[in-house]
UniProtKB/TrEMBL annotation:
Residue ranges of every copy of the Hda lid domain listed in the record: 167-231
Protein name: DnaA regulatory inactivator Hda
InterPro entries associated with the record: DnaA_dom, Hda, Hda_lid, P-loop_NTPase
Organism encoding this protein: Kushneria aurantia
Residues of the Chromosomal replication initiator protein DnaA ATPAse domain: 20-159
Length: 233
């Protein structure tokens, strides 16, 4: 896959609201700072971040690609959970881009062709002075990488461990997204959603979108009774 043939330079499934301003950093402020500066002349060439599902890995990778695009740079987001069943040809010639963000790395670990392709892609990006951002569910040391050279490469650069958000962080993230959407979300309503709704942030944000549409349609403010009726809780 040549970079000049890409119809969507940002990659597969990049949400336009997955930006840094919409991410509540909590204890991950240092990581967000590094990601914002990765394309600077003194930015970190390779950043590896890992954490459990719902820790914000995908949001941050997509945010990095969106910010790169806004700066006039070419970036590509590759979610291997969706693309890993294909041959690794998509990794060819990526050194023509400014930033490559690879998500769900664990999906292709243990597959020789993919590991070799990742190793060579890593080297080409490094030699071309490009930026690489990788996310996975576990640290580089605990990934069952079979190719020793790739295992060595994954240990380069900076590594960050993302923690699952606690209830306070979930609450702040919910209110931040509501503010971005122009919604007035009272604290009592946000806490009600937090305690009655799903625990995963992605599902919480989906509910928030439903409530936004429902409140606009009904011309009603968000209250606990309205949320109960709208979501049938």
């Amino acid at each position: 896959m040549k970079p000049d043939s890409l119809q969507l330079p940002l990659g597969v499934g990049v949400r336009d609201d997955a930006n840094f301003d919409g991410f509540w950093p909590g204890g991950n402020a240092a990581l967000v700072s590094q990601l914002r500066r990765q394309l600077d002349d003194d930015g970190e060439p390779f950043i590896y971040l890992w954490g459990p599902p719902d820790s914000g890995r995908t949001h941050l990778l997509q945010a990095a690609c969106l910010e790169a695009s806004e700066r006039g740079a070419r970036a590509l987001y590759l979610p291997l959970d969706d693309l890993g069943h294909f041959p690794p040809h998509m990794l060819e010639d990526l050194e023509a881009l400014d930033l490559v963000a690879i998500d769900d790395l664990e999906q292709v670990i243990g597959r020789r062709r993919w590991e070799e392709a990742l190793f060579h892609c890593f080297n080409r990006l490094r030699d071309a002075h490009r930026r690489l951002l990788i996310a996975a569910g576990s640290s580089p040391r605990t990934l069952p990488v079979e190719l020793p050279d790739l295992a060595s490469r994954l240990g380069w650069g900076m590594t960050f461990h993302l923690q699952l958000p606690d209830d306070n962080a979930r609450l702040e993230a919910l209110r931040l997204r509501a503010h971005q959407r122009g919604m007035e979300l009272p604290e009592d309503v946000a806490r009600y959603m937090l305690h009655r709704g799903p625990r995963r942030l992605a599902e919480m944000m989906t509910l928030l979108e439903r409530l936004d549409r429902a409140s606009l349609s009904a011309q009603r403010k968000l209250t606990i009774p309205f949320v109960k009726r709208a979501l049938e809780w």
